[in-house]
Amino acid sequence: MGRPTGEHDAQWTGPRLGRRELLRRTAGSAVVGGLALAACGPVKSRPSVQAPVVTITFQPYFGAIGQGQVNSAVKLAQQALEQYSSQGGSKGIRIQVAVFPGTDSNISAMTAGGGADVVYDYHYAPYIEAGVIAPLEDFVKEFGVDESIWSAGQIAVYKQNGHLYAVPAYMGTVCYALNLSVFDAVGVSYPTADWTYKDFVTLCTQLTGTANGQLRYGGMLYQWNNMIDGSRWIFNAFGGSLMNADGTQSTLDTPGSLAAGDYMFKQLYWPKICTTRSVGNYQALFQQGLIAMRTLGTWEIFTAAVAYQDNVKWDILPFPLWPAGRTTFSTDDFWAVNQQSKHLKEAAEVAIWASSSPYWNRFNMELQLLSPARVDMWDEWATTVQKVAPPLHGKALNWYGDAAQKGYALAPLYYKYNDPQCETAVGNIIYQLYTQQLTSVSQAFAEADKQVDAIIQQGAQQAAASSSSAAGSSSSSSASSSAASSSSGAASSSSSG
Fold first, then answer.
1. In this structure, are 166 and 127 located in the same domain?
2. 422 and 297 in a common domain
3. DSSP letters for 164-209
4. 462: helix, coil or strand?
5. Which residue in 26, 96, 90 sits closest to 59, CA to CA?
6. Looking at the 3D structure of the chain, how many domains does it have?
7. What was the pLDDT predicted at 138?
8. Segment 281-317, tens digit of pLDDT
C-alpha cells in the first residue's frame, strides 16, 4: 500500500447506476437497498503479486444501505480491495472485510486481545475510556498525510492529551428535505436558502394540520427526545454550548443554551408543530406528507433515493440561519486502530489509507452514495451521486458540501469523564422537557448542569486514583526489579569469588 494515497487511486471505476437499474433488479448485479449495483469489474489477467505479508481485518461503514444488504456490500467491498491490491496498491497488506458488531462487542473483543485490527464506530468516548485504541499522529506524519484534507471539527474530536486517536470514516452533514407537495396543498410559498429560524417556526405553524385523518407535523428537528446525540449544533446555533471546550463542565444553564432550549420546547415541541427523529419511520411519514420538512443526513440519501424515486415532489435546503449564524450537525464516525493488533503499523496504514484515499472514498460514493471523508471531494460527491441515482437529479446537494467545506457542520463533543452517564443524565432531562413532565427550561437545565458536573467530578477522581495506583504499582515493580537485580548481582559476585 505504501503511502495511503497514490497513483493507483485513479485506476478504479466502481459500480454505476442508471434509471432502469434504479427501478428494477438487474440480472447479475448485487442489489443493495433496492438499487442494482454492477459489481466492480473483475480484474482480468491479474499480474502476479507477492504473497501477502500480513492480513489486516477491517470494518467498513455500511450504514447508508441498511442492514438487509450488508452481505452484498461486503462482497463488493472485498472485491474492490482485492482489485486495488492486485494493481500494486497494497504492497503486501491483505485487507479482510469484517462487519461492525456493535460498540460493546467491539470493545469487549479488543479488551480480551481480539477484535478487528481497524475498527469502525460512531461513538468515540467508550473507546477512549476503555483505553483500547492506539495513537495515530506519528503514522499520519510517516505516511505523508496532511490533516487539512479532513474536517477540522472532526479531527478536533479525535484528539486528546496531545494524541490523535482516530481518522474519519466519512463525514456526514445534515440539510432539510422539503415535501413540496404539502406546501402546494396548503398554499404556502417555498422557503429559500436564506430562511431563518423564525421562518422555520412560521412554516411549521402553517404546515401543521391533518391529512387523511392523521396529524401532520410541519417540521422535524434533528434533536432526539431521549438522548443528546446530535444536539451540539442547536445550542451553538443560539450562542450557547452543551459543555465547555475540554468536556469537564456542563454549560446548559447559560444564556445561549437557555435561548436554544426556549426555542426548541416553547416554540416548536410544546405547541406540537415540530417532531423529533424518534417519531418513528420519519422517512415514510415524509413520503406520506405527514411531515412537511424533515432533516436528511447524507447517510440517508441512498434510502431517500430508493424510497422517493420520482413519486415525491421534494427538494433540499440548508438548515435555517440561526442567531449565531449557520450551523448544522456533522457525524464523527471514525476508524481507529486496535491497540492489541499484532500488526500495528500496517493497521494504521490501512485506516489512514481508507480515510484519505480518493480510491476508497470513490468506491463508497458509488456503492452507497456515502459522503467523503476528504473535504476536497464534496463537489465530486454531489456530481457522482446525481449520476448514480437519477431521482437525485436537480436536488440541491451542494448544501451538504457547503456545510463541510465552510466549517459550520459541528461534530458531537464528548464529556471527558463518564461520558455515557453524563449523556444519560442530560438525555433524561431533555426527554422530561419534551414530554412536559418538566415545564421550566431554566430549572431543568440548571438541574442537568448539577447532575452532569457531579458525574464528571466523580469520574475525574476515579481517573486520578487509577493513575496514582498505576504509578504506585509501576514504582513498586521498579523497586522490586532493582532489588532482585542487586540480589542477583551479589550472589553472582559471591559465586565467582
1. yes
2. yes
3. E--EES---BEEEEEEHHHHHHHT-PPP-TT-BHHHHHHHHHHH-E
4. helix
5. 96
6. 2
7. 97
8. 898 999 999 999 999 999 999 999 988 888 899 999 9
Angstrom distance (rounded) from CA 380 to CA 362: 9
Q: Exposed e or buried b for every residue in 179-195, given b needs 16+ CB within 10 A?
A: beebbeebebeebeeeb
Same domain, 324 and 347: no
493 in any annotated domain = no
Task: Choose the final residue of a domain: 321, 352, 374.
Answer: 374
- 390 is written with which cell numbers? 437519477
Beta-carbon contacts of 238 under 8 Å, excluding residues fewer than 6 positions away, are 256, 257, 259, 260, 263, 322, 323, 324
Residue 448 corresponds to which cell in the numbers above?
442537568
- pLDDT tens digits, 223-248: 765 566 667 899 999 999 999 999 99
pLDDT of residue 222: 78
Residues 162, 237 share a domain: no
**Same structural domain, 307 and 365:** no
In the predicted model, what is the mean pLDDT of residues 265-279? 93
Is 475 domain-assigned?
A: no
Do 199 and 309 lie in a common domain? Answer: yes
**Per-residue confidence band for 63, with pLDDT thresholds at 50, 70 and 90:** confident
Q: How far is CA 447 from CA 76, 237, 270, in A?
A: 50, 22, 20
Q: What angle, 0 to 180 degrees and rounded to 10, lies between the N-to-C axes of helices 441-496 and 419-434?
A: 170
pLDDT range class, residue 83, cuts 50, 70, 90: confident
Per this entry, what is the length of the chain? Answer: 497
Mean pLDDT rounded to a whole number for the chain: 84
pLDDT confidence of residue 493: 32
CATH of the domain at 337: 3.40.190.10
Residue 282 sits in the same domain as residue 427: yes
- Is the sign of the CA dihedral 24, 25, 26, 30 positive or negative? positive
Write out pLDDT tens, residues 377-392: 999 999 999 998 999 9
Distance CA 132, CA 260 (A): 36
Among 328, 3, 334, 4, which Cα is nearest to 159's? 334
With respect to residue 466, please indicate whether it lies within any of the assigned structural domains: no
In terms of residue numbers, what domain contains 347? Answer: 7-171+331-374
Residue 480 within a domain: no
Q: Is the pLDDT reported for residue 489 higher than 70?
A: no
User: Do 130 and 189 share a domain, yes or no?
Assistant: no
